[in-house]
Give the backbone structure.
Amino acid sequence: METKVIVIDENDIDETAQAGLEEAGRIIKEGGLVAFPTETVYGLGGDALNPESSKKIYAAKGRPSDNPLIVHVANMEDLADIVKEVPESAKKLAKAFWPGPLTMIMNKNEKVPYETTGGLDTVAIRMPNNKIALELIRQSGGYIAAPSANTSGRPSPTIARYCEEDLSGKIEMIIDGGQVGIGLESTIVDLTSDVPMILRPGYITASMLKDVLGEISIDRTIIDGSSAEKPKAPGMKYRHYAPKGQLMIVQGQQDNVVDYINKSTKEAMAEGKRVGIIGTDATMKLYSADVVKSVGNREDERTIAHELFKVLREFDDENIDVMFSESFDDSGIGQAIMNRLLKAAGHNVKVV
Ligand code: AMP
Ligand code: MG
């Protein structure tokens, strides 16, 4: 299959762009797949109410079929149409954070096929904050099932080129809307339990949710990587976000971290390996390796979220065998950053 790529500027949806979105909407209505930008990462979209479309999504990504998809909607009335009831907590959270990087889990009704929910009676729903995504959802009939638009296991794509790399030839269309704003997947909160529970940390933090709901719990497996318990979001149990090379996170005081990384880099390079280092704006000049990249500025962790997956992909592009990364604060949005980084590293952490 030939994959058509169209370029759209989110801030200038002119007639040509509108025609492109109508074409993309038709593709999805007819059971095809389109990769598109959201504010979090690129999504791989199909008709959420069509079981055949969901099957195609799993096949294109190589995704295990017990890992449910997130359904994207463009308005609240459409949400009410696919769940048993809209809980009060969902109304409050939608008012505070939608459109935005928050996914809510509710009890599904019969309109949502089990192919979309990985066999579960619950469904994950989000309204993305991106004009291209919202118009595409409307043009597609209201419901787009969309996981991240990468091959399962690889870092999520934050630019269209990485969707092409993973999915070209396997899907009908890719909409290139430039680099996404946030760079990490949505926060997932389960509203079917007595106390709402965070199943995946993201840009919307625990304290932001607590401010709206009064109370919030967190799936322990997110915090404790060595927990024997199964994560409540089926997808969180899989190795994820992984670059092709080996990644180690180095934790400790800055001087010790820099010394350890430089020493280990020398050793690995002496063995003939290509080495990459993930530093920050303030530390990057202290390192020397084949490739040294800054993932952002510690003073504003949003910059780190924005660049993390892109940096991991760039190391793949440069055929890096071994990577060392600094560690980050585990609070606020740092919780989401460390969750992704730890998974990318397969929990390979060195404390110095
Ligand atoms: P992705 O779309 O690639 O960001 O992955 C979606 C994430 O949402 C995966 O970790 C899924 O396991 C999780 N998810 C989707 N639907 C549900 C659900 N009904 N219950 C629990 N987790 C879900
Ligand atoms: Mg994903």
Summary: Residues 147-148, 156 surround magnesium ion (ligand 2) (CB under 6 Å). Residues 67 and 234 are 5 Å apart (CA to CA).
